[in-house]
Hints:
Largest sheet: 5 strands, parallel
CATH architecture: 3-Layer(aba) Sandwich
Shape: globular
Strand order of the largest sheet: 2-1-3-4-5
Number of strands: 5
Number of domains: 1
Number of helices: 5
CATH superfamily: Flavodoxin domain
Structural class: alpha/beta
Strand content: 15-25%
Helix content: 25-40%
CATH topology: Rossmann fold
Amino acid sequence: MKKLVAFFSASGTTKQVAKELATSINADIFEIVPKQTYTSADLNWMDKKSRSTLEMNDKSARPQIKNELKNMAEYDLVFLGFPIWWYTAPRIINTFLESYDFSNKTVVLFATSGGSGLGNTAKDLKSSCDKTTKIISGKLLNGRPSKAELKSWAESLKL
């Protein structure tokens, strides 16, 4: 089973975890890079007019992705990481899922968060995938888990 760790990271926190996870489970890695970089003002969740707030309030928002993964068809198992925004995945994760064929693939979600859990994220993302895509809610990976902890978690999924 060929594995990929794909991730979006606005501040670098999720990127660190994704790199450790990819190394610990011997997976390829792909960073989802927004076409328009998020500034600190864009990420100010206290500002009702900030870019991230406007995107999260619009369920149809699909921020563009700058880079492309050319070999998605090779992967059976995709660990998909992101920060939690407004109790779910950022809209760019929907863009990513809608940009590739995830038919008959397993997608395991992982996230970083300053305070909220994964909640209904798996359910929220299901509509962006084929009905044959298996989405596993996964886990919050806060606090810089070790490679051993990440490997143990991935193995515990029995995929």
